[in-house]
Amino acid sequence: MKTIKRIHDNIYLKENNFEKPKQIHTFICRLIKKFKKKNFNGSITDFGSGNGELLFNLKKNFPESKINGVEVNKLLVKMSRKKLKNYNIKIISGSVLNKKVLKANISEITISSGVLPIFDDYKLFLNNLIHFTKKGGKIFIAALFNEFPIDVYVKYQRTKNIKKNFLESGWNIFSKQTIFKFLKKNKKIKKFYFKNFQLTKNLKKKIEDPVRSWTFRNKNGRLLTTNGLNLILPTSVLCIELR
To answer: Which of 33, 95, 98, 212 has a beta carbon 3.0–4.6 Å from 206's, enabling a disulfide?
Structure first.
């Protein structure tokens, strides 16, 4: 049986979207501003903080806030600590799946962007984010969510790795209905809802890495996102408010 690996994240070692933030990062910042005022000075934690691009833009938008990042890839931790050393941002090496990586109820605003599709166990992921979030706090999860009542578990292998004993993960698409059924049972939750995200700028196809996303327009002119897995990628932000 082949093992499951996540090696795709190393691409972020070569990226630099600090001054020109990704559209999804700008979208998340706007959602936070609707929930908290611009001068918010509480705690924000980004789980799966990667190379630190979102952390940087959170600090720009909420300069008085206390910002933490949690990242499991040690190379990205090293890179982001170096990039952000002058911004009073704490970056912890660890996984969102480890309940001991941070104290419980540490964060007023909890964020995770592009991380949920890596995991097959959405329940542990969601429960841990709730565990780390203070009462009255809010969670923003940017991920792939299916409008149809079907959970899609994706594993893939690049042709160059055909003889190797592993498959890659990272593109699971969970049904909004599945997430709804799970969250509505949790008494800690005040309310939750999805904010659909739509790219407004084209993403070019990167020939050197066909797993990277790019955009195209359908016959109605709508901008859709796909990748070399032949998937249509439906991105939304799941917003959870705690009691």
So the answer is: 212
